[in-house]
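Why show two proteins at once? Because comparison is the fastest way to build intuition. When a single record is shown, students tend to memorize it. When two are placed side by side, the eye starts asking what differs. So, the first record is below.
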Amino acid sequence: MKKFWLFIVFLSLLNCSKKEGLFIDEIPTETKTTSTHTFGGSKNDGLHSVEKTVDGGFIVAGFTQSNNADIVSKTNESFDFLVSKFSSDNKLEWQKTFGGTQDDRAAAIIQTVDGGFAVLGYAKSSDLDVTKNAGSKDFWLLKLSNNGTLLWQKTFGFSGADYGTTLLETKNGGFLITGVLDVSASNGQGNAKSAATQHAGGDYWVLKTDNAGNLEWNTFFGGSFTDTPLGIVETINNNFIIAGSSDSNDFNIENNKGTYDFWIIKISSTGNLIWEKSFGGSEIDEARAITSTNDGHFIIVGDTRSKDKDVSINNGAADVWAIKISTEGILIWEKTIGGTSFDVARAVTKTQDNGFLIAGSSRSLDKGFENKGQNDALILKIDANGKLLWQKTVGGSQIDFLYGVVELNNKIIIAVGESSSSDQDISENKGFTDALIIQIEE
């Protein structure tokens, strides 16, 4: 009987300790087959976006400065859009570069309903493929055929640094694109706001075009400081939710929690603001990507340095932070994942089993993280309730980042980014940074 009561006391202490955070649950790590591939030349090359394609393969977009080794379609050493199409077994089918003689970089790519592709980023050039530039940087939107032929291109911007970050093809046709508008340099241009509501800083700039890239409407949202949109989804009612970060606390932003917050806005199909919400704590919290869930809500990921207000736990310098919100912007749950150093998320995608893949980078050496150098590429999976299912780091002794992730129809995971390593998990580096592709068989 004495042993029985001692056992009951032990169980009680164990449950109490877990509630107080004194016991750390075992963190699952990914042990399935993983392969890495780098490509590029002697300069800087990287990937920022990946999407699965209707033929079972995938397409990637980013930038290249190289004109040698794996980059065969360039003659100069300026930065150009890099677009590469791969089969489902990771074989390169075609590769294209687009740009002028200055700095032009792609941030996002999607496959369109006609089987072609749309690419968004920024252009500093005003020659070669870039027919117009209004200032330091402009949004640059490209429409490609299914074999990578440039069909048309459009620039949008004013005299300052305006750069595109993400896009989608709307259900009623055309494209919704967003990025940062340099409001000060544009002198309040970018929508029809009155002079009384014009404000400084970089704002969310949202533009709607038709199928040929012709502008239908545009509008901007933000405050006096820095507001950066990095993810967008369309709702079932043809509205749009845009996720990013803001350190403003005026004009459109009414409830900043402290320094940078996840700043989420919902707008109508004609660009009117429906609601805006800030999520975070008293430190820096930055949203980087958003995706829809099967139950009509939304998952937003980024990183947090906070441990108060909306953020219940912080394990170190920065943690991956994932939140789920309703279509009305109500916080349903929030989860932090990380070790005692810097761990960040840059992309999220839904999987066929109703889970979510998150990609980013990690510098931690504890709590299941196996750092091999500086920043390692990080891939993890959570279920529909935010529970961590597995996590994996891939890298070498230098800096390795991921910016995009997708699950193909055959359930193979593809994550993309850039790498400066040439050891451990990364077998080769041809220049300063190489484009990085990681493949995981689930």
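Second record. Ask yourself what differs from the first in the token line.
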Amino acid sequence: MNTPLRILAIAGTLTLALSAGAGAATVRLVPLAGRTVGPSLNSCALPSVAASVAAAAPAELPAIAAAQNRTGITIVRIDLDPRGTLAGTSVLDSSGNRWIDLAALRAARLSAFSAEVRNCERVGGAYAFVVDFTQ
């Protein structure tokens, strides 16, 4: 499956836009397992909440990529534990540019996340951290 089809398959679930400064990127967090947060029969205050980016680290287009007139989209797999702590990262789909991929990995590693809440319990999971350097 090529990159545009993969992006279309995961687009539209959970979105966070970073500042629109020069070279800034757009970031989306998407569940990899296809789970969706739905209604719950439990009576806690927030029985079901999707995982989210609590504090996004800046994802800036690297100077070397800008000098090469290169942009791209990198999809980083992030694994969260039930506390929302980042347990692992890897490039799931490369932009085709090493410097852009490294910038996306750095942004994922420096961001803070909130874990998904399902039936009043925090759960870990795998997500796609999509960093778009094309805008």
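One difference worth noting in the second protein: DSSP finds three helices and nine strands in the chain.
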